[in-house]
Amino acid sequence: MQRFFVSPEAFERQPVILTGPQAHQIRRVLRMRLGERAVLLNGRGWACEGLLIAVTETDVRFQVSQRWQESGEPRTQITLLQAVLKGERFGWVLQKGTEVGVSAFMPMICERNVVDDMEAVEDKRERWERIIQEAAEQSGRAFLPQLLPAQLFQQAVQPGSLPGKAAAAAPLRLLLWEGEQEASLNGALAGCNFTSGARIQVLVGPEGGFTEEEVRLARSYGIRTITLGPRILRADTAGVVAAAIILHEAGEMGGTELPNEL
Ligand code: SAH
User: For the chain, which residues make up each domain, given as ranges?
Assistant: First the structure.
């Protein structure tokens, strides 16, 4: 059954009325017929089943039969602070990170980024948010991963630079660095209490990597540098691989046998 993320306001109404690109997608692209059903999600963990009862030139309407809380979201909240990348690579990270289970993304501008200004980054927001929404619908996510405002590296490494529950325990902050020889990812995760849901931030550099100065600055704020092994991963591979390993270590990749440490 098709899944659509709708605005929380639309989600509360009866019938649920969709307009704009979403109505166009349902009417012209998916060519859904009256009487067909779809799962509608509010992006905050709630879902409902909708029966398509009206299709007009301007909107489509779903009669809602039941609402429920979706499961399937990881308890482990990963925020991927990804240096912006050339071409389609950043969009690729958003799509694959959403499929794997990343909860939030933050575009980061590093020393070796060839980006003239923040404007250029924020101009891509609409397209990037659409990539996240489509990946979340396709992969069956219950929550819509957030795309946080872009930040310069120097800002992003400072404690409290990201929105989040202030009272909650400080997140584990990891910087992926190909120059790190000792600290491994599972070593860094050893102290994590996954059962109550861990908050982990992962910083990934641009195509040219982090500078020594950026690594020093991150460490000065208590961010731990970790290696993903001797092979150099591309900037668009590293964050997705790290997220998958973290969620696997946390027992969030399915199956019934509990991981031995839980
Ligand atoms: N020049 C290549 C790779 C640059 S490294 C490219 O064009 O993509 C890009 C980023 O990936 C680094 O800043 C680091 O965050 C991460 N990374 C790549 N390989 C890694 C490894 N073996 N260990 C830890 N981080 C790695």
Answer: 2-69, 77-249
